[in-house]
Amino acid sequence: MSAHHDLYSILGVSRNADDGEIRKSYRKLCLTAHPDKGGSAEEFQKIQHAYEILSDGQKRQMYDQTGSTDEQQIPGGVNVDLGSMFANMFGGGFNPFDQMPGMPNRTKRNKPHPKIHEIPVSLHDFYHGKQLKIQFERQKFCVGCKGEGFSNFTNCDRCNGRGIIEQMMMVGPGMMATSRGPCDHCGGKGKKGTTRCSTCSSKKTFTQEKILDITIESGMKKGDSHIFSNECSDDINYQEPGDVHIFFQEADESLDVSRSGDDLHGMCNISFKESILGTSYTIKHHPKYPNGFEIKIPIGTMNGDTITVLNEGMPKRYSKQFGNFVLKVDVIISEDEKKILETHHEEFKKLFSAEG
Question: What is the pLDDT of residue 70?
Fold first, then answer.
């Protein structure tokens, strides 16, 4: 499989997919592939990486042109990164230098997995909209030492402050190569702490209470979401805090109406008499009508007919329009009505066979 198609296939979109399709597919995958939902952390990391590249116009253009997601250019083969070379040779991200004791990751990853929260929303709130607040605790870096744990530092004597050391490594029979990697004494920082931070007593982080204001907009649907960027805890292994993804789900309710897209659906049973003469039926639980929604059932309504009432469905998001209400009618002939039909069979026969 060509690397040119890898990221697109991971997200399940075509190479011509627009930003909206990419975002929609990513959100859908988050609901099933996230580790919190029983998915594989490795697979979800691939999904995260694919979305990070394809949702960024500049990165996506480079990927489409080169098939590569590496933003760093290696000048003329000098200082070849053997770790990357081996990773490409063996595939699957294998890197012999990552396996060496005491050798940390070369660079911090951009972001950890997002935290996903699902909020059940009633039909009433999807119709009218609602404001919510979510409160949680997160860990933030100390403002005094920015998560370092120390206020003063000295250069690492192992790497002379460079953060990088060189090691000789055998890559084949009689073949030696020089690899460059992060210093195992300072973790690639090039410095060591000498004075503990007095602000946090070297705890590096503090607990912060965070409140997110969430808007459920009128007309939102199941699966719609809000993304709050960088609102998770700080993590020393990542350049930025993770995002918080809020997904809306339908609350578990016992209602006479159900939703399908922007339309609302209901059903009713009427008698044979009512189907012949016409009647009206009041639907409970319509979010617009707390006292019930009355629908006229015209003369001659047959079993299985549907009655559509325009503009009485759900509000359409980003517009002033509404969906429709669709009522399915079942005609139930009672035992008494059957007796009447039998008793007056000849009269009904003459009535329906009479010419206009």
Answer: 59
Rounded Cα gap, residues 126 and 147, in angstroms: 42
Strands 191-196 and 150-155: antiparallel
Euclidean distance between CA atoms 325 and 302, whole angstroms: 18
Q: How many CB atoms lie within 10 A of CB 202?
A: 16
If one compares 178 and 197, the residue with the highest pLDDT of the two is 197
Helix axes 335-343, 345-353, angle to 10 degrees: 70
Alpha-carbon span 282 to 268, nearest angstrom: 9
Q: Which helix (H) or strand (E) holds 153?
A: strand 150-155
Residues paired with 9 in a beta bridge: none
**Is residue 139 pLDDT above 80, yes or no?**
yes
Report the predicted TM-score, pTM, of the whole model to 2 decimal places.
0.64
Asked if 301 and 329 count as a contact pair (C-beta separation under 8 A), the reply is yes
DSSP-derived secondary structure letter, 257: -
Nearest alpha carbon to residue 123 among 235, 30, 262: 262
pLDDT in tens, 121-132: 999 999 999 999
Residue 50: name the closest of 29, 72, 75, 76 by CA: 29
Q: Which pairs from 285-293 meet CB under 8 Å and 24+ separation?
A: 285/123, 285/255, 285/256, 285/257, 286/257, 286/312, 286/325, 287/123, 287/124, 287/126, 287/127, 287/128, 287/314, 288/127, 288/312, 293/325
- Beta-strand pair 244-250/293-297: unpaired
DSSP tag of 196: E
- Per-residue pLDDT at 86 exceeds 50: no
DSSP annotation of 236 = T
Q: Is the dihedral of CA 115, 116, 119, 123 positive or negative?
A: positive
The yes-or-no verdict on residue 92 having pLDDT over 60 is no
Q: What distance in Å separates the CA atoms of residue 106 and residue 112, rounded to the nearest whole number?
A: 16
SS3 325: strand
Closest to 257 in 3D by CA, of 123, 121, 125: 123
Query: Does residue 311 have a pLDDT over 90?
Result: yes
Domains of the chain and CATH, by start: 1-72 (1.10.287.110), 258-353 (2.60.260.20)
